Amino acid sequence: MSEPAQAVAKEAVRVAASLHQLPELPYALDALEPHVDARTLEIHHGKHHASYVDNLNAALEGHPELQERTATWLVLNANKLPDDIRTSVRNNAGGHLNHSLLWKAMAPGARTRPEGPLAEAIERDFGSLGGLRKQLEAVALKAFGSAWVWLARARQDAGRLEVLVSSGHGNPLTQGYYPVLVADLWEHAYYLKHQNRRADYLKDWWNVVDWREAERLFEGSRAPSESLHFPFP
Question: Helix (H) and strand (E) counts for the chain?
Answer without folding.
Answer: 11, 3
